[in-house]
Structures are given as C-alpha cells and as structure tokens.
Specification:
α1 crosses α7 and α2 crosses α3. The chain has a five-stranded parallel β-sheet with strand order 2-3-1-4-5, sandwiched between helices. The mean pLDDT is 95. The chain is globular. Helix content is 56%, strand content 13%. The chain contains seven helices and five strands.
Length: 165
C-alpha cells in the first residue's frame, strides 16, 4: 500500500511521514526532496527559474514515479492536489491522508518568507488554505488532526489505516 500525506505547508508531511514510514516499516518518499535532488536546486530556485507551472510539471512526474514504489509513505508537496491528473494518481494508486492543522497553528509554523515562493506576504497562507483545503478533504480517505506532536500524529494515522484495512 502507498500512503500519500497531503496538507498545507507546515502540516508536518515530511516529519510525520518519516514517523509513519518507520512504524509501517516502509520507505518514505518526500516529493519535494526528490524534485530538488533531480534538478539540483531548491524548490524556491525551481519556482524562480521555471515558475509555478514548471514546478507543477516536475511534481507530477515525481508523483508518477512515487506511485510505483509500493509499499511506501509519500510526503506530497502542499499543491499536489491542484493538478487534476495528480488527483487521479492519488486516488487510484494509494490511500490519501490529509494532515489537518488549524490556521492559527500554520501561521506559527510557516511565517511569510522570501524563500517560500507562495507564502511571501501576510495573507498568502490564508489564500492557499482557502483554495486547497476543499481539495484535500475531497480526495483524502482519512482526515487526521495534525496539530499535535509528530509521533502522536503518526500513531493516529497508523490507527486510521488499521481500521480501514
């Protein structure tokens, strides 16, 4: 089984993903890290050089590669659900888990910064959440409260997966 973790920047996809992968005894695939390794630059550099559309193309290819790595836990980028083809891949090749974190906590975890291509100014995080949250909820088989410690969130995910098996 492939477990896809989706959610906003700061929801803990990579950190919690490592914990879930360890509990399940499967590898973690971090899509952003895979893209950075493939291109040899940071996500911010890729956005600057290729724009968001260029990054989304790389993300879609990385997701397709990850969709063949069964079993695994895949930490997806926050915008992976924006592309319809990615949503098909998520739905057809694994179990999607939305890491839900309250906006106030996301603000603490992800302040606007120059190195964040889509969260540079106040209000950007809220705008992204409004656009993405409905998609996360629509495509997730499970919604997990990810406001706690990574280990607690991982335990909750593993428990959810056991109940649905």
């Amino acid at each position: 089984m492939i477990v896809y973790l989706v959610g906003m920047p700061g929801s803990g996809k990579s950190t919690v993903g490592q914990e879930v992968a360890g509990r399940l005894g499967v590898p973690l695939v971090d899509l952003d890290a895979e893209i950075e390794r493939e291109i040899g630059g940071s996500v911010a550099q890729i956005f600057e050089e290729r724009g968001e559309a260029g990054f989304r193309e790389l993300e879609a290819r990385a997701l397709l590669r990850a969709s063949t790595q069964d079993p695994s836990v895949v930490a997806c980028g926050g915008g992976v659900v924006l592309e319809p083809a990615n949503r098909v891949t998520l739905r057809n090749t694994g179990v999607c888990v939305f890491l839900d974190v309250p906006l106030e906590q996301l603000r603490d975890r992800v302040p606007p910064a120059a190195e964040r291509p889509l969260i540079r100014e106040e209000g950007d995080l809220e705008r992204l959440l409004r656009a993405r949250e409905p998609l996360y909820r629509e495509f997730a088989a499970h919604v997990v409260d990810a406001s706690g410690a990574p280990g607690e969130v991982a335990d909750a995910i593993v428990e959810e997966l056991r109940w649905s098996a």
